[in-house]
Amino acid sequence: MKYFNLFSDVLVTKGASRILISDLQRNISEIYPLELYDIIESLKHHSVEDLLKSYDEESQEIIHEYLDFFLEKEYGFFSQNDWDKNFLPLSYEYKENDLLSNIFIEMVDLAILHKIKSSIENLEIKHIIIFSKKNLSLDELVEIDNLFKNSPVSSIEIYSPYHSSINIDFIQNLNQNTLRFHNIVFYNCNQEPFKIIKNTFNFTLSFLNENLKISSCGKVSLDYFNTNINKVLEAINYNSCLYKKIGIDAQGNIKNCPSMCKAFGNIENTTLEEVLNKENFKKYWNITKDNIEVCKDCEFRYICTDCRAYTERIHSNEDGIDTSKPLKCGYDPYSGEWEEWSTNPLKQKAIKHYGL
């Protein structure tokens, strides 16, 4: 007897009309026909010979082609007995030991960072995302980095408006005088001021023509899908956008995300530690894509980042938690087709509600 075994780091996600096979070692995901799911499931319990008996000759040829293709893609291997079918599967358990993994700040000026610095250090937050509404000078960017030089913060991501002082000398000085920046995006830029050569700086650098706003987040696109084992395991177990994250909006309100409506206090009179201990603050942490309408039938659900700030606002669970599909998603898992989300007539009421 011959048995086919999927490698433990190959994840098969069943959608309504297709399946997604994710190679978590190579960080690659590919779409396949839904009919393949039943074959893969049958191969977990039956030998290839026994499986083929239940199909006609034409279907047997197709199955052989699929198996040859799986071998070519290195999704699995053949064994001569079923002992290999008992090899330990990949654990889908996800552990994040930090109290909070990152903080997302809508920043008007640097004063907010000085005000919450002690809380960031006490909570041992390692990653900071800053969306600046004002132009940041070289000195201000260096000050941000230096502010956290003796803290647990290991990476800082910056989104800031582009201004004419930003040139190659500006970036080189920034590269030489900072340690914690890992991604910097200058938005509202008509054209790249210079050609970016990959791996030139300690951080990734981008210039965007788009005039970003805090409401620009939440877009669902193939461009943003990520077959990263840590992100996939997080998505299987927790909310892929809000788990162990905290946000502060431009008015200093402390939220799950700066774009969400619900505030749990303000930095003027409430600490991040106090907010973290409020029970309702964590209510969205465990809402996975398997709990969200439409998303639960999508083959992309474990490589896609969720959004609870902008949803279609048509579903909620028994606890009153919004379980609607993200508003800015134009994918229909039932037809397997993409469309422009902003022109969908069924989304117009929610779009108007958010003032988008």
Automatic annotation (TrEMBL):
Signal peptide: none
Domain 4Fe4S-binding SPASM residues, every copy: 242-299
Coiled coil (residue ranges): none
Domain of life: Bacteria
InterPro entries: 4Fe4S-binding_SPASM_dom, Aldolase_TIM, GRASP-with-SPASM, rSAM_sf
NCBIfam families documented for this protein: rSAM_more_4Fe4S, SPASM_w_grasp
Name this polypeptide is given: SPASM domain peptide maturase, grasp-with-spasm system
